[in-house]
Design brief:
By secondary structure, the protein is an alpha+beta fold. Helices cover 41% and strands 15% of the residues.
């Protein structure tokens, strides 16, 4: 049990790669991220979940899909909940300027999380002020409809600086706080927020992003500060609220990290020849369990460990030979980054760190240099964005002309990067892999037993099989039927498709297709021993289950978010 819940509010101003990279950094360090202005349409929101690691994404667009978009995208709020956190989350239907939901923590503690993006501040536009008041009124209505929550957190980009006492929005917000027992964290003694917005062109600083919390939550506030980091390319900076609420964090030590994989398509004829030679050398050292082959007892169980070890030795031989001889993939950066951005980023980070060490001055030589280098960094990123598609298009054209299909489709995938690898770490309150797998095992049991059958007829089938084994197999009547030859193995391997993974080890089907006759002999011995003993090695029975949710806008921590149709797709 931990006593620390961290919440970030951040206006990211778009969903470009640099914004997403920075949000990934925030997700790695904090529990809940409230983002504003992600600029996604509702039908594109699932791609946000694919680009951000180890979170569940709940959000909505700020744009109406029924209206023609004029100019750049705008608006949109989302709540990112880290997979480290043990929780249940229930979304609440609100307007396009907000996104809300009830977060339930251990001990039945319920927190209303309300993410908000307000219209710009004004001194004269009363229509704008009416919209501002309507959004606040909607929040009051949500609170009245959910009186069972323990605490309330209203956060986001309010576009209101509380120091501007003459602004219409400031007066409206202050009246709202006083009338609804809401407290502004910036007015608390623990606050360390100097500004949350910096105009990149004029250098004007403002505090537009806020956390308003119910007064009964004030006693749990541990920290409230703005985060100023050079990696952020938004003109807003993140704001952190840390609360001493009882939470349970799940270890992400087994989180999927980038691991270089064998790239067989890049392997030359010499690489493959070396692979076969090294594989033969390793196989010469593998012990062949002849005692297992000589055993003809179909009820024997004393040789299970020998078969298990033999299988693992053969798999390790393939993996070792592949690692030694076959080229591996490497993580690729953004196209054109070194040419357009790297030097400007280095200068910007250097002067940003100097500025931090000097106490974040708002004027002076250091502040001016920091502002100038930061602006150059921003312009370089924008220039890269304008050139990136051309660079990738050039690579696609070269791959197409050279008839390199794999490189061509690799570039297509980078442009349309919609593959989602988000897998929740908590499902139905279960936290470890074993408990979660049991949840899905129960689902499968229900699915596979949903069609009725005659138990007596099934028992008759089992008895007939047992009788055949006793009358034929145990008496040597079907000896040849239990022998797998190397020719059978070679034929089976020849039918495998390339670049197929086993899902457990880093072993691809290419390792088998490029193996040699000696390896085929070993496999024939293994499979024959398995048939005689009716036993499959433990590692061979391992499988990977990937849940396919019917709606990624809903909570992925609920197993009911997977339909029967989804399970059929998995099968």
């Amino acid at each position: 049990m931990a006593v620390n819940l961290s919440i970030i509010s951040f206006n990211c101003k778009g969903h470009s790669d640099d914004r997403i990279d920075y949000i990934n950094q925030l997700v790695a360090a904090y529990d809940i991220i409230l983002i504003q202005e992600h600029w996604y349409n509702d039908y594109d929101l699932p791609s946000l979940a694919c680009r951000i690691r180890n979170v569940q994404v709940f959000g909505s667009s700020g744009m109406e899909t029924s209206e023609l978009l004029i100019g750049r995208p705008y608006g949109g709020c989302a709540i990112l909940l880290s997979d480290r956190l043990n929780y249940t989350f229930t979304p609440i239907s609100v307007s396009k300027r907000c996104y809300a939901g009830i977060l339930e923590l251990p001990n039945n503690v319920k927190v209303l999380i309300y993410n908000i993006y307000m219209p710009c501040d004004t001194n004269h536009d009363h229509n704008n002020n009416e919209e501002y008041a309507c959004v606040l009124a909607e929040f009051i209505n949500v609170c009245n409809n959910h009186t069972d929550v323990n605490y309330t957190v209203l956060a986001g980009d309010f576009n209101t600086d509380l120091s501007r006492v003459n602004a219409l929005h400031t007066r409206e917000l202050l009246n709202f706080m006083n009338g609804n027992s809401m407290a502004a964290c910036i007015r608390q003694g623990c606050s360390d927020v100097k500004h949350t917005y910096e105009n990149i062109h004029t250098g004007v600083l403002s505090t537009l992003d806020h956390f308003l919390i119910s007064e009964n939550l004030l006693q749990y506030v541990l920290e409230y500060r703005s985060i100023h980091e050079g990696e952020s390319l938004s003109d807003h900076c993140p704001v952190l609220l840390r609360l001493s609420l009882d939470t349970v964090h799940v270890s992400l030590s087994n989180d999927k990290q980038y691991v270089p994989k064998p790239s067989w398509r890049k392997a030359s004829h010499q690489n493959i020849s070396d692979y076969q030679s090294v594989l033969s050398s390793i196989l010469d050292t593998v012990h062949v369990p002849l005692n297992v082959l000589q055993c003809k007892d179909f009820h024997c169980s004393i040789h299970y460990d020998d078969i298990d070890m033999y299988y693992n030795n053969l798999v390790n031989a393939c993996i070792t030979a592949t690692d030694r001889c076959i080229p591996h993939t490497r993580r690729r950066g953004r196209a054109g980054w070194n040419e357009y951005v790297r030097s400007n980023r280095s200068d910007s980070m250097f002067w940003h760190n100097i500025w931090l060490q000097c106490g974040r001055p708002q004027c002076g030589i250091v502040a001016n240099i920091r502002r100038t280098t930061r602006a150059k960094y921003h312009r370089a990123v924008k220039e890269l964005k304008s050139q990136e598609n051309l660079i990738r298009a050039g690579k696609m054209a070269n791959a197409f002309i050279s008839q390199n299909r794999q490189d061509f489709w690799d570039e297509v995938k980078r442009i349309d990067n919609n593959k989602c690898n988000t897998v929740p770490k908590v499902v139905d309150g279960k936290q470890n892999d074993t408990d979660i797998s049991n949840v899905f095992a129960d689902k499968y049991q229900q699915l596979y037993n949903c069609v009725s059958y005659d138990q007596g007829e099934m028992n008759s089938v089992f008895k007939a099989l047992d009788a055949s084994i006793d009358s034929l197999c145990n008496k040597g009547g079907c000896y040849d039927s239990h022998i797998i030859s190397s020719h059978d193995v070679a034929n089976a391997i020849g039918k495998l498709k390339l670049n197929k993974s086993d899902g457990v080890h880093i072993l691809l089907s290419d390792s088998l297709k490029h193996s040699n006759p000696l390896f085929h002999e070993h496999l024939s011995v293994l499979f024959t021993a398995m048939l005689y003993h009716g036993f499959a090695p433990h590692s061979m029975k391992l499988s990977t289950i990937i849940p396919i949710p019917k709606n990624r806008k809903k909570c992925l921590n609920d197993s009911n978010n997977c339909t029967k149709e989804s399970y059929w797709k998995i099968c």
